Amino acid sequence: MRFLTAKRRHRAARPALLVLALLLMGALYAAVAPAARVSADTGTSQQVAEGKALFQVTCSSCHGMNGEGTSQGPSLVGVGAASANFQVSTGRMPMANPGAQAPRKKSTYTEEEVAALSAFVASLGPGPAIPTAEQYSGEGLSAEELAKGGELFRTNCSACHNFEGAGGALPTGKYAPSLRGVSGQHIWEAMRTGPQQMPVFSSGVLPDEDVQAIVGYLETLHAQPSSGLTFGAIGPVAEGLFAWIIGIGGLCLIAIWIAARGARAK
Amino acid sequence: MAKPADVSTASPALATERPPKPGGMPSGVTGVATWADERIGLASLLKKNLRKVFPDHWSFLLGEIALYSFIILLLTGVFLTIWFKPSMAEIEYQGTYQLMRGLPMSEAFASTLALSFDIRGGLLVRQIHHWAAMLFVAAMTVHMLRIFFTGAFRKPREINWLIGVGLFSISLIEGFAGYSLPDDLLSGTGLRFVDGMIRSIPLIGTWAEFFIFNGEFPGDLVIPRLYMVHILLVPGLLLGLIAAHLALVVYHKHTQYPGPGRKDGNVVGYPLFPVYMAKAGGFFFVVFGVAILMGATMQINPVWNFGPYNPAQVTAGSQPDWYMGFVEGAIRIMPPWEWHLGGTTWSWNVFLPGVGLLTGLFIVLGAYPFIERWLTGDTAEHHVLDRPRNNPTRTALGVAGMTAYALFWIAGGNDILATQFRLSLNAVTEFMRVAVFVGPVIAFLITKRICISLQRADSERVLHGSETGIIERSPDGGYSEPHAPIHIEEKYTLTQHVQNTALQITPETDGHGVLEKGAGVSRLRALMSRWFHGGAIEKPTAAQIEAADHHADGHGADGHAVDGHDADGHELTDSEESSQASR
């Protein structure tokens, strides 16, 4: 301690202390901070390079050369492979024209190209990965589990997507799209990444079993027969329209026919 | 038969033969008829009414659609009550519908699922019942519009109009109660909507809500209560009012459209038996058939897709059945006006478009016959209907009302419009906020002009005949279209209406300087009356028609019944030709 006391006014004492403090902080940080996820293994680096090339041709005008985002499109750092897979394979990206919302359309990419783009976007920063079938598949669920999926759907989804997943309106031209014919994988990806207007339902909110139940419910619901023409399953508005057109319209025609017929003395 | 008596071994009863009746009717029918007549006096009742004359027009069958739908509702409703359990007790569903297995739900919803999936024909009957309900209210609406536009509500039928308005209003309650019974997510949301409307009533709202729901929404009594309303209270009222409605139709006799031989003092048509027995009876089965076809082929209210009601859930596309759609629309487009006074909230944003519009509609409907009478001062009895064009302001008011209703109605589906036609929800809402005020005014002006144009066309047709479509060229080069005179009967139809004139202000004192009370026409009334009668075209007078006939006869010598008017107007005389050439 004498040494420290004697040398504490030395010229080098302050810089040395600073270096020491920095070292301490660095060591502490290294000990406490989470380890960076190691995602890019050597086997996919070729795929990432292909993805990057494709990205720079078809995506970079809005999302920037390295996915950092521009005034036209958001940054893709950290959105994860699941997000890229959802947006591209449902045809939402690349956007054909700027609007309130990117509509679902036919994807022009092959599966390999989608995989390469997803791998590149995943390499930009850690995010949700593309799920495996065990994570989203609604196959083989019991009736009770499917019913629970229906309850979860009505609690979390139907307010925007309608009771049958037929879709619904959102403010200023935005909308919740129809869920008919949407694969379980895309539903999982949409819930985990929150595309466009959709909120994120993280695995802490709805674990994978719940997503599976919802997917299973929707698949069963859409496979079951209806009790007649459904008019798009959009509820009482369509029913009222057809009550008037077919019901009252048809009966008026019959009334005209009845009044014009019979008991004519002429 | 009148043989001398023989000794016979056969039973006398077997040998007895009844003497033949002079009419030659089958003895069984006569027997039953006589038996009944001797006990309840059926013959005189039927004799009087079987030959009752009704006029023939398709629009007179619109009310019948409503009546027959009501009968279908009674029949199918009885079937549904056998299986439906009006209870809000919570149970765990263990029925056949897989996607609800194990869910907690009310007995009402579980029994609706059972009706749909386990009871043979239950789903069909449910769908027929629901479609018939939609038809019932829709048929009442079109029937009411027919009455309105033809002026059939005038003296002596004001009371029957009021009964009709009453029927229409309680039908909305009936329909809403039925919509709420299954206790599914959609009907529960609808109930929540009405709960909000009740709560928005100033001062008594909360109290009324607690009274109806027996506490906080949703409570556990509202379904049994609505069940009572739906199957006992309102149907009873409906039956009574329908009976009164029809009795008054018989008492007043049916109105008829104008035509030759049709006057306020007669009814031209066919007798009830056999013509209308066959037509009306047949129409009943047609209406029933249409309802069954709709129930069999068109899905309605798929409660198994909605799920049981849970106040924590809601679905996009939550709308009421069509007849409550205009209230839904009014509330959807209403700006958020609210007062906060002290610790109280005054929800004008719900009260005005909800309770206000609903009661306002029925007040306006009920008051209209009396308002029109005040405007016209017309105290005569009317059994011949108005042609809508001959009362332009009434027709225009009716179309304006329909426009307002339709716009509110459309606004109730603003989200469906936005999704189906790729529109912005906000744009639809903001457009409707303006359109519900501007639209009716535009509709009023356009309809009034159309009516007046049609009157002018009628007048033209009476005076100048119908266009023949033949263009004739005269020797000196003029072109004209000869008009063929129309039949005298058509002329009668086009000119039979009474030319109403606006009321004039009566002096406040009579000739002796005494103040007159009651009978006078005030300045306001005269002003409103002038507005009501404004713009109407004078119908051709008898002298004008006679002059026109003579005019046409003069030109008819060449074999065509040429109307001179057009030819005179378009033929160029020599002097005109020369003056044109000199220019």
What report would you give on this structure?
- The complex is a heterodimer of chains A (266) and B (583).
- Chain A is mainly α and 266 residues long.
- Among the domains of chain A are: 83 residues, Orthogonal Bundle (Cytochrome Bc1 Complex, Chain D, domain 2), CATH 1.10.760; 91 residues, Cytochrome Bc1 Complex, Chain D, domain 2.
- Chain A contains 12 helices and 2 strands; from the N terminus they run H-H-H-H-H-H-H-H-H-E-E-H-H-H.
- A two-stranded antiparallel ribbon of chain A has the order 1-2.
- In chain A, helix 8 packs across helix 11 and helix 10 crosses helix 11.
- The model of chain A has no long low-confidence stretch (mean pLDDT 87).
- Chain B is mainly α and 583 residues long.
- Chain B has 2 domains: 334 residues, Cytochrome Bc1 Complex, Chain C (Up-down Bundle), CATH 1.20.810; 114 residues, no CATH class.
- Chain B is 60% helix and 4% strand.
- Chain B has 22 helices and 10 strands.
- The longest helix of chain B has 40 residues.
- Chain B starts with 11 loop residues before the first helix and ends with a helix.
- The N terminus and C terminus of chain B are likely disordered.
- At the A-B interface, helix 8, helix 9, strand 1, strand 2 and helix 11 of A face helix 4, helix 6, helix 11, helix 16 and helix 17 of B.
List the helices and strands and how they pair.
The complex is a heterodimer of chains A (266) and B (583).
Chain A: H1 2-7, H2 13-32, H3 45-58, H4 60-63, H5 80-89, H6 111-124, H7 133-136, H8 143-156, H9 158-161, E1 168-169, E2 175-176, H10 184-193, H11 208-223, H12 236-259
Antiparallel strand pairs in A: 1-2
Chain B: H1 12-15, H2 27-40, H3 42-50, E1 53-54, H4 62-83, E2 90-92, E3 104-106, H5 107-117, H6 122-149, H7 158-180, H8 185-199, H9 205-213, H10 222-252, E4 270-271, H11 272-297, H12 303-306, H13 325-333, E5 339-341, E6 344-346, H14 348-376, H15 392-411, H16 414-420, H17 425-464, E7 466-467, E8 472-473, E9 479-480, E10 483-484, H18 488-495, H19 523-533, H20 542-555, H21 564-570, H22 574-582
Antiparallel strand pairs in B: 1-4, 2-3, 5-6, 7-10, 8-9
Helix pairs in contact in B: 4-6, 4-11, 5-6, 6-7, 6-11, 7-10, 7-14, 8-9, 13-14, 13-15, 15-17, 17-18
